[in-house]
Write a structure and sequence with these properties.
Strand order of the largest sheet: 8-6-5-9-10
CATH class: Alpha Beta
Number of domains: 1
Distance between the termini: 64 Å
Strand content: 25-35%
Order of helices and strands: HEEEEEEEEEHE
Number of strands: 10
CATH superfamily: PEBP-like
Radius of gyration: 19 Å
Shape: globular
Largest sheet: 5 strands, antiparallel
Structural class: alpha+beta
């Protein structure tokens, strides 16, 4: 077995290449960062918060092969809801040709959302972006922004689909996902 080190090196390189490809799906934002608190522009306007409630821009690249659509979900796992967390934005049926959403796309009157897309009711009770507004005086909450690459063109959801049902269907059809986390407290 003279070639054993070469075979091991080749196998290791192949595995690292496969792992790097599998992990290449990436989500970024020019508006949010793990190193900075979420800006007031994106904070909810209500429940004692005085933000502008503008959805942040999101950009993604290198989705998995076979992606037919995307979904975006924003969740606050730190919300004091008895363990369910709080859904701040849920968008499905984004075409596979998309590489992101522009700032403000989550607004009710926004024309930036593709026609095929559907915004699901958040835990605020309405579709569209609902910015952070955690209880005052607590540690900053973590807001996880996730884009999912789906293996279906469209999710067949009932008209009254909840964010949790949508999340179940999204995860059941996901080929991959990419996330970025940001924080906000008051």
């Amino acid at each position: 077995m003279k070639n054993t080190p070469a075979i091991v090196a080749f196998a290791a390189a192949a595995l690292m290449g496969a792992a790097a490809h599998a992990q290449s799906f990436e989500l970024t934002s020019p508006d949010i960062s793990p190193a900075q608190p979420i800006a007031m522009k994106h904070v909810f306007n209500g429940f004692g918060c005085t933000g502008e409630n503008v959805s942040p821009a999101l950009e993604w690249k290198n989705p998995p092969t076979g992606t037919k659509s995307f979904a975006v979900m924003v969740h606050d796992a730190d919300a004091p809801t008895g363990g369910a967390g709080f859904w701040h934005w849920v968008v499905v049926n984004l075409p596979a040709t998309m590489t992101g959403l522009s700032q403000g796309a989550g607004g009710a009157a926004s024309k930036a959302m593709p026609e095929a897309a559907r915004q699901i009711n958040t835990d605020f009770g309405a579709p569209g972006w609902g910015g952070p507004c955690p209880p005052q005086g607590r540690a900053p909450h973590r807001y996880t922004f996730t884009v999912y690459a789906l293996g279906v063109d469209k999710l067949d959801l009932p008209a009254n689909a909840t964010a949790s049902l949508t999340g179940f269907m999204v995860n059941g059809n996901a080929l991959g996902k990419a996330s970025v986390e940001a924080r906000y407290g008051r």
